[in-house]
Design a protein that fits this description.
- This protein has a single domain, classed as P-loop containing nucleotide triphosphate hydrolases (Rossmann fold), CATH 3.40.50.
- The chain is an alpha/beta fold and 213 residues long.
- The protein starts with a strand and ends with a helix.
- Strand 5 and strand 6 form a beta hairpin.
- The chain is globular, with a radius of gyration of 17 Å.
- A five-stranded parallel beta sheet has the order 2-3-1-4-8, with helices on both faces.
- Helices cover 50% and strands 15% of the residues.
- The protein binds adenosine-5'-diphosphate (ADP) and zinc ion.
- The site of zinc ion has 8 residues, from loops.
């Protein structure tokens, strides 16, 4: 399957993407993970992106399009992909459309994961992430077995730099202003599936139903 996952920070795009990869071998493509990897590795891209990310602001569109143009043409994309955190602005969506036409690729649809704001806020402030493998934990509902240590790889489980209260409220404002308009964009394209659900299982079922129809 080839899907775009839309939704506010904390809506569960990453969790849903990871579950979907197990169904049919599609790969998760998270621009946030790619950027965090570049920052950690200290590459040119990482140096350019770092200050935007820390503040919870978006990284410029041209940097993101450069990353995605290469990424979408890698071999593992042949079995399908789940775009998690991209596109994030109308210009990115317009350019993605051109890029897909150019490389002869086509998406199934875009999923809008719609979660109430109070749930989002609670999730983001209690979320913790493994800095080595990206596994996601929650201090209340899903803590690692040993505090601060990843169950999967033993890496350090920490609060992300952009998950302070100030950066979170900025990320939500940026989402409302720049990314929420994509819902209307994909609706007009006739390729939007909106799922109002707080359980990832319900989101997965709705996606599978639409794929089968
Ligand atoms: P979130 O939990 O907010 O969805 P992500 O891991 O997707 O977080 O992204 C973290 C940060 O990386 C964003 O706040 C932004 O600075 C940057 N980023 C990720 N994807 C994009 C994108 N498509 N366009 C611009 N900036 C991006
Ligand atoms: Zn880990």
């Amino acid at each position: 399957m080839k899907l775009i996952l839309l939704g506010a920070p904390g809506a569960g795009k990453g969790t849903v993407a990871k579950m979907l990869t197990k169904i049919d071998g599609s790969v998760q493509i998270s621009t946030g993970d790619i950027l965090r990897g570049a920052v950690a590795a200290g590459t040119e891209l990482g140096k350019k992106a770092e200050c935007f990310m820390k503040a919870g602001d978006l990284v410029p569109d041209d940097l993101i399009m450069g990353i995605m143009e290469e990424r979408l043409q890698e071999d593992d994309c042949k079995n399908g992909y789940l775009l998690d955190g991209f596109p994030r602005t109308i210009p990115q969506a317009e350019e993605l459309k051109l890029l897909l036409a150019r490389i002869g690729d086509e998406l199934d649809f875009a999923v809008n994961i719609d979660v109430p704001r109070d749930v989002i806020l609670d999730r983001l402030t209690t979320r913790r992430t493994c800095s080595d493998c990206g596994a996601i934990y929650n201090v209340k509902s899903n803590p690692p077995k040993v505090e601060g240590k990843c169950d999967k790889c033993g890496g350090p489980v920490v609060q992300r730099d952009d998950e302070t209260e100030e950066a979170i409220s900025n990320r939500l404002a940026v989402y409302n202003e720049k990314t929420a308009p994509l819902i209307g964009f994909y609706e007009k394209e006739g390729m939007l599936l909106t799922v109002t659900a707080t359980s990832s299982d319900a989101v997965i079922s709705a996606i599978q139903e639409r794929l089968a129809s």
